[in-house]
Each structure stands twice: as structure tokens, then as C-alpha cells.
Amino acid sequence: MKILSVVATATAVRDQCLSCCEVGGYKHPNTKCYKPGLGSEEDCKAACETGKSFLQQKAQVRIVNEAFASLAQSEGDDAKEETQVATLAKQASQAVESVKLGKFKGMLDQIAQEQAASQQADQKDASVNQEAADHIRLVEQRLEARLDKAENDMVGVSTKCTCSGPTCPCDLRKTK
């Protein structure tokens, strides 16, 4: 802000000098635009634009130096802020990744629990299926044994029945 006010002041002084030249002030020694040897309004205006005193030049150099120093400080502050922002962004990113990983881990845990429950159910189903298969095999073996016995008992028995009716005494299924 200090730089802007100095620049504005220098501009105002120049504008006053140019106005002084326009009204012929370069001819009168007690005016702001008077300099010995100026013979015309154009010379006066040129002197306002370029004819700076040593103090004016020194002030302008100081203004430029202050502007660059302020700019350098501002850039340094900006760099610090950018570093802080980058650090905060990195921390935020890490926090988000942590949350994502936490959610992902939770999802994996849930999937693992579901798989374990499914595996237990599958094992139970397999056990029940095995028991049923064992039972069916046992029943099948018993039936085969009965059929074998019935076939053995029928050897030598005539399968043609000469009797008729529901009271037929022929028993094709002899038992011992």
C-alpha cells in the first residue's frame, strides 16, 4: 500500500507540473514547473516528464526497491502458504486414503465373515448330504440283500401258478 501511495503522489506531482506548463507557469520563477532555460510549453512538458531532480530519481529508485522487496516478501509468504496448503492437502489426502482403507478393510472383513458363514453352511449341507447318502446306501444294501435272498429262495420253485383266485396257496416269496 505504501508503494501505491508514493506512486500516486509522483503521478500527481507530474500532472501538476504538466498543468502548470499549459498555463505558462514555466515563465514565472515561483511556480512548480519553472526551470531556467525553458522557452516553450513543449520544453516545459518534456522537463516534467524527464527532468527529474536527483531527489526524485532517488525516491523513484527507493520506490522500485521497496516494490521489489515487498514483492519478494509477498512471494516468500505465498511460498510459505503454498507449502502449508500442500502439507494440509497431503494430510487430507492421507486421511481420506485412511478412511477409504478403513472402509475397504471393513468391506473385506464383511466378505470374509460372509464367506466363513457360507463355508459353514456348505460344510453342514455336505455333512447332511453325506448322512443321507450313507443312509440311502444302507437301505440299498438291505434291499439288495433281500432281493438276493428272495432269488435264492425261488430256486427250484415253479413260477407258474395253477391256482386261481385270491385264496391261492402258492407263495412265490418263501421265507426260511
Mean pLDDT: 77
Report the structural category: mainly alpha
Approximate shape: rod-shaped
Number of helices: 3
Percent helix range: over 70%
What's the total count of β strands?
Answer: 0
Largest sheet: none
Order of helices and strands: HHH
Low-pLDDT windows of residues: none
Strand content: under 5%
Radius of gyration: 58 Å
Oligomer: single chain
First-last Cα distance: 125 Å
Description:
The protein has 176 residues and is mainly α. 74% of the residues lie in helices and 0% in strands. It contains three helices and no strands. The chain has helices spanning 2-22, 41-50, 54-153. Helix 1 (2-22) packs antiparallel against helix 2 (41-50). The protein starts with a helix and ends in a 23-residue tail after the last helix. The model has no long low-confidence stretch (mean pLDDT 77).
List keywords for this structure.
rod-shaped, 176 residues, 3 helices, mainly alpha
Topology:
Blueprint lengths: L1 H21 L18 H10 L3 H100 L23
Helix pairs in contact: 1-2
Give a short overview:
This protein has 176 residues and is mostly helical. The chain contains 3 helices and no strands.
